[in-house]
Amino acid sequence: MTTFNAMPIDDDSLTWGVPSRRVGAFLIDGFLIGLLTLSLSVSFAILHVMSLGLLHGPAHLILIVGLIYESCFIASPAMATPGEMLVGLQIRRSDDLGRPTLLQGIAFTALLYLTLAAGVIWLGVAFFTHRRRTIHDMISGLVVVRAGALAPRRW
């Protein structure tokens, strides 16, 4: 068993209270993605009208705003979306608690949206698994942890 900041990786304190915080983070991020999508929609509508419909093609990129938003924030040095930062969560690699790669962020987000499309009930797996991981966490090789639990402890 390896350690990170003198704390065992399998320590349960890393993931205690994570499922309820994830719900709050999801709602905050959903609101922010909605605002971003709305502003892009208005911008593309104005561009569409001003170009007499010739520049309609880029408007279809609105469909992947959430994927880009989540993936880029997960792979960033913060290792969390703004919603996750507000509720004190970080997304780390499962094996060594390192920073996720962009490919892992894309897989994590795409699988999250597939899980939501298949039915929210599948997210309930987090209540029964080790380290409170959902299906898209396990497949992408990531784990959601409390950021405060990773801070070095002071005496």
UniProtKB/TrEMBL annotation:
<dbReference type="InterPro" id="IPR010432">
    <property type="entry name" value="RDD"/>
</dbReference>
<feature type="transmembrane region" description="Helical">
    <location>
        <begin position="101"/>
        <end position="128"/>
    </location>
</feature>
<dbReference type="Pfam" id="PF06271">
    <property type="entry name" value="RDD"/>
</dbReference>
<feature type="transmembrane region" description="Helical">
    <location>
        <begin position="23"/>
        <end position="47"/>
    </location>
</feature>
<feature type="domain" description="RDD">
    <location>
        <begin position="19"/>
        <end position="141"/>
    </location>
</feature>
<protein>
    <submittedName>
        <fullName>RDD family protein</fullName>
    </submittedName>
</protein>
<keyword id="KW-0812">Transmembrane</keyword>
<keyword id="KW-0472">Membrane</keyword>
<keyword id="KW-1133">Transmembrane helix</keyword>
<dbReference type="GO" id="GO:0016020">
    <property type="term" value="C:membrane"/>
</dbReference>
<feature type="transmembrane region" description="Helical">
    <location>
        <begin position="59"/>
        <end position="81"/>
    </location>
</feature>
